[in-house]
Amino acid sequence: MHHLGLDIYTHKDLTSARLFFEKVFAEHVPQLPRKLPSCQISIVIPVFGERIDRLKMQIESFERQTLSRKFFEVIYIVNNDISDGTKEWRDVYDKNQKAISFLKKYKGISLFVIDRSSKGKEIKNCNVGSARNRALAEVCARYFLQKEDGILFQTDADVRLDNKRHLQKILSAFRNDSRIFGASGGVIYEIDPDTEDAAVRKEYIKYFDCIRYSFQWNTLLRELHVKDLPLPAFPTRFSGMHMITRVITSAVIGGVLERGFAEDTLFGKAIEKYAEKKGGYILPKREEWYVISALRESFRTEASYGTALTKIIQNKAAFVISEKAPYFPYFMNKMLSDLRKMKSLDEAFLFLYPKNTSLHLLTKKDVKDLLRDLGEARGNNERYIAYKKWRIKHRGTKRGPLEEMYFQDYPLIKLTKYRLDKLKKLLHVDPKKRLHFENVTKNFHHFRKPKL
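^ thats the sequence. predicted structure below, dont judge the formating
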């Protein structure tokens, strides 16, 4: 099989790629050896506090591929931030060290480890985007130096391939059509909690329907309150669990944005924009090529399902926002707008302390930081992003002060299938809302019950 060439790229394109490498390598020392001449697919996977058994399952799914092992490689970037002295950081660090030890001892498929976790190698202000970018730069530079293009397959450490011909299909598609610059794949979520306690794992499976219904309810609430809903997943929309691109193209556009959310979607949009300029396209495979991802108690990003899952298990039922409560995003927009207009720090400080609050650790300096961030933001979306970043910094993944206000005034209700079906029936008289529901269910909440 012949490699993809660099003939589609202009001198300006290749200069952009080189500048991307230089920018990343200014603070990141490459760790990968020279690429094997036969390799045409590089699979990049960020690892952050992952269990060894999940890594084993993932590697086994690569080993089962029908594509010859000489045509692909797997690159793990084990990553975390500089120590903040917390137990959470230590737990992730310890898990990362076990992962590095396990992966480095592995013998089989071509597998390499980039260590951005050990002391002195951490990534300052680390997030999933910054981890992806460092691995992406190393991978792309290796192809670039050998004057070749290839295929970059980015996924997560809790994902496994569903079909043993998955990599073969990817390579064949890119080989058969030079206009393909990327491919968007689909994801099926299977319940796989982080705990190794067999009894607790059975509880998760027992409440599978509660988990599924709670996500469906949140989709219905959006349909209830928002007019003219666009379909959230279009055929070429990228997911970080399953995004495939040309290697050099990924460098030409400057890699992945270094942020903890939506870095995958924005990366896909940039790839598609570049492809269109070149007369190419993104191959839509969201409903044909699937990977299996663990539906688990992850808390790393805003899109993680940890909070929703753990509460269902703790309460042995799904408790959700009532259809009679104001829509949460609209409530947040109003609160942030009001907060931004306040004339003094004292006024804002008191505003953020609802009665019976548990936020006793919030200081006036914290509030001052928030007001500064909100003042620099433009529009509702930017203000909410600024608030989320501030909340994560000061509260981790726990509720912030505005969330406390909302849930004190509008307590959660117990979700029943009757209540779910009633709201669904009411809303889905409108075919556009029904189509929206089907789109979300298929692309974001495509859950599969595991076998016991």
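The two ends are 42 Å apart (CA to CA).
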